[in-house]
């Protein structure tokens, strides 16, 4: 867990001083930086191939390889810009706090609470990294190495899902309105729960595990366990 930041102003509610706090910015920063570094490296390789085909491409790029390199460089360049925007967003302080009152989404300037009385269930969701068939032994070994390094037995992109008795009660509050809009078409993980939920992505698996254990201890009657999600978010 992390240290709860001090509020920028004394106006509005704020979590208790002894609240458990997880910085979602810190947790997601490593993954964002790694992705940006990889795509930046690949972009540079594609740019070099496009600019100096006679040095970096077979046959000097005479067979259309240079055009392909240009297209790849443009696509990877755009992806690098998107990932860079993700790094900037990750640097903005924000996190999840849990205290006697309930669960809070905390930024540098405000804290949005959801009381325990409003919550009907809490769960942990994850996405599955499926194995893709590789014809060569080296590719299969590489795939397994990356799977072990970046996932938890194929599970990744963990998130804390918070289900409310009345989802409309926070429909006009940011970022809860965005969370509910993105999850409104998902099937609920258990009967009687709404489709819309508040979803807090946790970048590092270890951080997710720590927060999940704390939520289970704090509200065991609300914890419904973990489940796979197939949604885009």
- What's the total count of β strands? 8
N-to-C order of helices and strands: EHHHEEEEHEHEHE
- Report the end-to-end length measured between terminal Cα atoms: 24 Å
Classify the helix fraction into a percent range: 40-55%
Total domains, how many?
Answer: 2
Query: Mean pLDDT, rounded to whole units?
Result: 86
Class by SSE composition: alpha+beta
Structure description:
The chain has 233 residues and is of the alpha+beta class. The chain folds into two domains: 1-109; 118-228, no CATH class. It contains six helices and eight strands, in the order βαααββββαβαβαβ. A four-stranded antiparallel β-sheet has the order 1-2-3-4. Strands 7-6-5-8 form a four-stranded mixed β-sheet. Helix 1 (24-51) runs antiparallel to helix 3. It is elongated and about 70 Å long. It starts with 19 loop residues before the first strand and ends in a 5-residue tail after the last strand. The relative contact order is 0.16. The model has no long low-confidence stretch (mean pLDDT 86). The chain crosses the membrane at residues 29-52, 67-91. Keywords: Membrane, Transmembrane, Transmembrane helix.
Walk me through the topology:
Elements: E1 20-23, H1 24-51, H2 53-56, H3 65-91, E2 94-98, E3 102-107, E4 111-115, E5 119-128, H4 137-150, E6 155-164, H5 176-183, E7 198-201, H6 205-218, E8 223-228
Parallel strand pairs: 5-8
Antiparallel strand pairs: 1-2, 2-3, 3-4, 5-6, 6-7
Helix pairs in contact: 1-3
């Amino acid at each position: 867990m992390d240290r709860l930041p001090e509020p920028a102003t004394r106006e509005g509610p704020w979590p208790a001083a002894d609240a458990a706090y997880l910085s979602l910015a810190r947790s997601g920063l490593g993954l964002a930086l790694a992705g940006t570094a990889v795509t930046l490296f690949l972009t540079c390789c594609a740019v070099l191939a496009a600019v100096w085909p006679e040095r970096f491409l077979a046959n000097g790029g005479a067979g259309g390889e240079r055009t392909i390199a240009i297209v790849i460089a443009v696509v990877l360049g755009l992806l690098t810009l998107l990932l860079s925007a993700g790094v900037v967003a990750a640097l903005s302080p924000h996190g999840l706090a849990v205290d006697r009152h309930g669960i809070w989404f905390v930024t540098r300037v405000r804290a949005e609470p959801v009381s325990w009385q409003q919550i009907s269930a809490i769960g942990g969701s994850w996405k599955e990294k499926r194995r893709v068939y590789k014809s060569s032994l080296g590719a299969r070994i590489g795939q397994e190495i990356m799977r072990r390094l970046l996932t938890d037995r194929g599970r990744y992109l963990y998130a804390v899902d918070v289900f409310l008795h009345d989802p409309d009660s926070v429909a006009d509050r940011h970022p809860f309105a965005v969370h509910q809009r993105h999850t409104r078409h998902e099937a609920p993980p258990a009967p009687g729960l709404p489709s819309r939920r508040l979803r807090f992505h946790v970048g590092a698996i270890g951080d997710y595990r720590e927060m999940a254990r704390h939520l289970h201890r704090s509200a065991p009657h609300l914890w419904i366990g973990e489940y796979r999600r197939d949604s885009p978010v």
